[in-house]
Each structure stands twice: as structure tokens, then as C-alpha cells.
Design goal:
The protein is built from five helices and no strands. It is mostly helical.
Length: about 160
């Protein structure tokens, strides 16, 4: 547009050429600045992509670790429940047998009576749950919030 305006002014030819040359120089400088900006943006993009790739690797490792820990926890809870059932059976057996009360000390009898009266599973459950992460609350880091689906990454 500036070039057309310069040509329409109709001044001396030398002045017109000087104005056109200045316009071309300003355009060339603007192109150089845009090229530098593009180069900086590409460099920044490369850095960010490298950081993203590193974070994806960390995320993959974290997901795997969470999965391993969840499996360990489930195995430990299953083993605990199995042991609780065994202990409940032993308590029930000791309480039913008449010789059991005679062979046990007074303290042992009171402990067994307490456990039998409280229903062993209910007595041990609060102890077990207090040492474990409460999953009833939806925390920010809850394993249920972790998505193993990669479709969001495509966006």
C-alpha cells in the first residue's frame, strides 16, 4: 500500500525511489525480526517438547509404581483377612472347649473373651484402616483419578 501511495504522489523519480527503498528496507527488517521470532519459538518448542517427553517418562514410571503398590496392598489386605479368619476360628474354638478355659491364664481368657465379644473382624478393622489411606474421600492424588487412557494425550 505504501508503495502504491508513493507512486501516486508524483514527485521526482529519485525521491520516489528513495521512499520505495526505505519501504523495502523496513519490510526486510520486519521479515528479519519475524524470522528471529520464529527461530526462538521453534527453539522454545523443542525445549518444551523435550521437557514434556521427560515428564511423560516420569508419569509412566509413577503409574507403574502405583499399580505395583496397589497390588502389594491388595495382597497384604487379603492376607490380613485370611489371618483374621484363622484367629477368629481359634478364638471360637477356645471359647467352645471346656478345657480351654482351664488351660489358659486369667489374662489370656479375658483377652479371648474380649475378642469373642467384639467379633474379631470388627475389632481389628479400625486398627487396620487407620494405618491405610482412606479411599472413601476423593483426594487430589487418589489412584482412581489416574487415567491409563492415552486418548487425552492426542489433544
Amino acid at each position: 500500500e505504501q508503495g502504491l501511495q508513493l507512486l501516486e504522489l508524483g514527485g521526482s523519480v529519485e525521491e520516489d525511489y528513495i521512499r520505495i527503498a526505505r519501504c523495502f528496507e523496513a519490510t526486510r527488517q520486519r521479515c528479519c525480526r519475524l524470522e528471529q521470532d520464529g527461530r526462538r519459538a521453534r527453539e522454545q518448542l523443542a525445549r518444551v517438547e523435550a521437557e514434556r517427553a521427560a515428564l511423560e517418562v516420569k508419569l509412566k514410571h509413577a503409574r507403574n509404581q502405583v499399580e505395583v503398590e496397589m497390588k502389594k496392598r491388595h495382597r497384604a489386605e487379603a492376607e490380613l483377612e485370611k489371618q483374621e479368619r484363622k484367629l477368629q476360628l481359634v478364638v471360637e474354638l477356645l471359647m467352645r472347649e471346656p478345657w480351654g478355659n482351664e488351660a489358659l491364664s486369667r489374662e489370656q481368657c479375658s483377652v479371648i473373651s474380649f475378642l469373642a465379644g467384639q467379633r474379631l473382624g470388627a475389632a481389628l478393622a479400625p486398627i487396620r484402616r487407620s494405618s491405610v489411606v482412606d479411599e472413601s474421600c476423593q483426594s487430589l492424588l487418589s489412584h482412581s483419578d489416574i487415567s491409563y487412557d492415552r486418548t487425552e494425550d492426542d489433544v
